[in-house]
Every structure is written in structure tokens, then in C-alpha cells.
Specification:
This protein is of the alpha/beta class. The chain folds into two domains: 2-330, Purple Acid Phosphatase, chain A, domain 2 (4-Layer Sandwich); 349-436, no CATH class. Helices cover 34% and strands 19% of the residues. The strands form two sheets. Strands 1, 2, 3, 10, 11, 12 and 13 form a seven-stranded mixed β-sheet that branches. A six-stranded mixed β-sheet has the order 4-5-6-7-9-8. The longest helix has 18 residues, at 24-41.
Amino acid sequence: MLLLHISDIHFNYPVCGTQMDPDRPYRTILLQDARDRAASLGPVDAILVSGDIAFHGMAEEYSAASEWLADLASACGCQIERVYVVPGNHDVDRNVITGQASVRNAQQAIGRAAPDRRERELLVQFQDGEAGRSLFAPLGAYNEFAARFSCQVYPPERLFWQQDLEVDEKTVIRIHGLTSTLLSGAGVPSGRDDSRESLYLSPLQTALDPLDGVVNLVLCHHPPDWFMDADVAEDAICGRAAIHLFGHKHRQRFSRDENYVRFSAGAVNPNRYEVGWEPGYNIIRLTVSERAGARYLDVEAQLLVWQARPDMFRPKMVNQTDVVFRHTLPIRGVVATARLPASRGNTSAADGPRASNPVEAAGDTEAAMSNVHARNLVFRFWSLASSKRREIAEGLRLIEPAEIALPETERYGRALMRASERGLLEQLAEEIDRMENR
């Protein structure tokens, strides 16, 4: 399995998407470099973006980002529905925070709670309909962008997201897309939106179940040391996740431990005036091997960094001769290999039968929506006009009357989950086909 890890693209309105965009050449050459490497390494299976897709959290910035990500996926042979995103502090629309007292009140109630009460306060705010939506209001434009990839977040049940990638019949990579920006942009004494006093992860996001045959991968914008609950977050992530992908610091690093490997992505477009400016991205290959009755995940990675004159990306050196960073991790437990028939309508005939794995055993609807067929339907659904999305959802009775007034990312996010739960994905596919041809 080949993964492409990028971060901090910083599409910046009003120049993004225009010929005046000074960051455009770096993105173009990254796309070309990824295309050339995929030609020799094989097609990319998934693109993981660890936040700061936009610069101001504006819809225009996400429009430019969508076009570029589609071009990147096409260039490296990755299906567009295998793009995964999480928000960064630049994906927060600060104007929403300054303009809505309800947003500031919800953030401050959590941030100012005593440490031993903060987790409880987050849960109370998040599960309250109005307060929970206030927390996510600054991510409105981001959520509309992320919905097509099934990566939007909304109250009271989706503080973060989970999606699965099958490596083989016995092994699943479970991606945990964590939301590190719930308090970002709040009025804090330092005035910064990325300081410890304005960033809180909470144990509610790090209950990373260490199931047999499941390799937990954390995708998050901020590394653990940036949170007010840094020690708790670090221990949980290091103890339960084998692969860590972070952004934010604009420093490209590879670190490893007996039980995990951590990648910090250099920004695709860091501030050109910052000290140590160095665009970069990562290519990571994951392979399962068996030795002496035990199973292992073999990790090989190239960390690509920018150089000028000639403009190009080149690999960082591990030592004087090697450009491939390597590590091997144990895979917990053994999973039955017997295949089961497709269930809950989440597999098309073209996909073939799915492996029996802890995802299906747990009956996890969100994980059941992880397969390529289901994610493709989600992407196509969100590409339709709003009126057509509503017609489909109401025709298949996937939304409740009380949900009509909810933000679309929440309303249709629930509707698509219901389609999976009720075994209606094939009917959903037919309706999408009809709308696309109408």
C-alpha cells in the first residue's frame, strides 16, 4: 500500500487559483514529482492531508484546493475518493468566532474549565445541539469541502472520523482523523490561535481501540506537544496508534519507536519568509510480512524536500548513501481469514466479497462506508446540486423532518450513514446516476 502524505497547502484568497499565486509553482512541481514517482513506485492508494488546506477558511480557497487535489490524485493514479483530510488552525474562519458570541461562549466554557473538568465540559458542549453546532461553525467552509471525502465533523456524534483501508485479508489500516481545532481562534491572552491555551484534543478523541488485525493510524494537524493536554494525548497516541501523521510545524521529520512510527510533513506551501522555509511531502509504503509465526508491518518512506535552481523535490538522506527511511512494527493478534458475504449493502458486485475483519464484526457503520464503492457514491452525491441531494435523500426517506434545518454537512452526513445501515446503497447509486444524467 502506497500513501502520499501532505500538509499545510495554505490556499490563500484572493490569489489562489490565479496566475498571480506565488505558491503555484511549488504545487505544480510537487504534482509532477508525485506523478513521476508513482510511475516507478506504483499508483498511490490514498492521499492523506494533515490540515491547513486553506489560509483563511474561505469557500474560495477550498474551491481551488478541490481542483488541485483532483489533479494530484489523477497524476499519481489515486482514486479521488481515497483522499482524506483533517482541519488545521488556518481552516478556521476567525470572522465567525468574532462575529458570534455563541461560538466564543462554547469555546471559553471548555478552555477555562478546570483540567479535571475539561473533558466533561467538552462532552456537555458537544452533545448540546446548539452549543455543539457553535463549536463547529468556524469550520463551516471546511466541512462543506471535507464532506465529499466523508471527513466532515458535526455534533453530537462525529467529533472526529474513522475510515479503513484494507492492506490484506488479515490487516486493516484504520485512519483516525482527529479534530485539533475545536478551540482554535478563541479569545486567549496570547492572541494566538495555535498556542497550548487554545488547543485541546481530549481523551474523547484518543480512545483508539487496539483491535487484533487493526493498525491504528492517527491523522492530525497539530502534534501532541501543542495541546493543553499534551502528556495525556502523547501517551494515548503513542500507546495505541502505530502510525502518526502530523503537520503544522512546517518541519519534515521521521521518528520511530518500538511500537510506532511518526511522520511530520513539511508544508506544501510554508510562509516563504519564515526561517527554515522548505516545502516538502512524504511517500510511505506499507507492506505486511510474516516471520516465525508473527506478523509485521514494514514501513518504507521517502521524505521529499524542495531545492531551488534547479527547482525540484529531492529525497532527504537517511545516511550518506540511503534515501529510504525504514521501520518494522508488530501487528497485534491474528484475524480470521474466512470471507463473509457482503453485508449492509456496502459492497457492489464489482468490488467482490470483503474480508472478515474487526470492522464488520463490530458492525461499525462509518467503517462500513470505507470501501471504494461507498466512498465513490459519497463523492458523487456531494458533487450534485443541493436541490438534487435533497430530492434523493427525501425520496429514499433518509432524513427526518426535524433535520431539514440542520447544516447540509450534518443533515446529509447522517442520511448517507442511514443508507448504509438500511442496505440502500445500491438504490442510492441508482438515484445518483439518474440525477447525473438529468
